[in-house]
Amino acid sequence: MGAVGSPTFRAPPPASLINYLSAMRTLFLCALTLLAACRGVAQDANTQAHLDSLVDSLIPDVERATGLNFRERPRPALRTKEEVRTFLLAKLSEEFPPERIRGVSEAYRLLGMIPDSLDLQALLLDLYSEQVAGFYDPDSSALFAVEGADPAQLRLVVAHELVHALQDQYLPLDSLLKQRTNGDRASASQAVLEGHATIASLKVLVPDGGMIDQPDFWQNFRVQIRESQATMAVFQRAPLVLREGLIFPYLYGADFMRWWAAAHPGEPLPLAADLPQSTEQILHPERYNAGDMPIELVFADSATTPLHEDTLGEMELHILGSNLRGGEVITSLAAGWGGDRYRVYDSPEGTALVWWTVWDSETSARRFRINVGNRLVAQGRPGYRVNADSSQVEGRPANRVVIAPTGWAGWDAVPGVGIRP
Fold this sequence. Notes:
Strand content: 5-15%
Oligomer: single chain
Helix content: 40-55%
Strand order of the largest sheet: 5-6-7-9-8
Largest sheet: 5 strands, antiparallel
Order of helices and strands: HHEHHHEEHHHHHHHHEEHEEHEEE
Shape: globular
Structural class: alpha+beta
Radius of gyration: 22 Å
């Protein structure tokens, strides 16, 4: 799989655009600005000996910050930017072959979340080049740092990545982040891992450890991150779904893990069986606490092979809603999302999207039809029909959105869904 817990990059699960990237360079620089002081570090950060020494000095602090002990020491390695970029691009090609990139691109293009002219793969490569600084790779249990990093930034990078190395000794990171059929669940797992690492690495580096427990700290932290993003040229020209996806696992994940620490004292990290199953549970921990599990939808037809299939989840619903109405992404109120599933089909006339959603109540379903379904219909698409219909799935309130070429053969028998037992 790809790099995990990268301070500036994640080779994500192929399920969702939210998982495409991790912009921890932004977070690190914001943290440096906000904290204004870190422990002293050696100035010559460009040697393997310094990296080894740094790892050894930080391991006890990371253990104290997380409440977990290393079962074995991670293997640190120093690499040039070119070597790291080559490695990450190889991982990208492995995880995202052309047909997968195309399937994801078509889904978000049809929903209007990325422009038709966007070359998604090229943009991802540009983002990698802009942001890469280091990462932890579960495949090799190695922690890579990039030569030439600022010493203070390197300390932040290594502290954060050491937390991921520690997580890898307690959770099955490879399987958690390699979920290929449910991007929403993968996003939830990623948020726990990045939120946990964000909090722990800040505890390691902040002289006054109690400061980060204060609400004002996190409010200022959010502001600093948003403001610093304006300085990143490639990031600024990325679509909203990518920009919000970059910060989701860190900010919202940190919020969830702060809630977890208060609600589950003595449990440093959720075990694999206890991990949140949806971004709804990350955004609204009360839904996690209530056992509100996502409903898994399964397409009924098996005769036609789709180009791509996945789940959006509540976070991307909020992003889509913001795209359609304009304005900022609002996540404070639960959408009443129960579950969703979409497929992208190839056809001679063009790609087609079939997207089903189920809801906690008819009120939530109606709100979706008004705020999302009707706006998708009004937005239209040349040469396409766009339908947004109310429905039911095994007695539950549901909506079906179809965006397909006018001459698409599938209009005569649009695929339905059922609920996985």
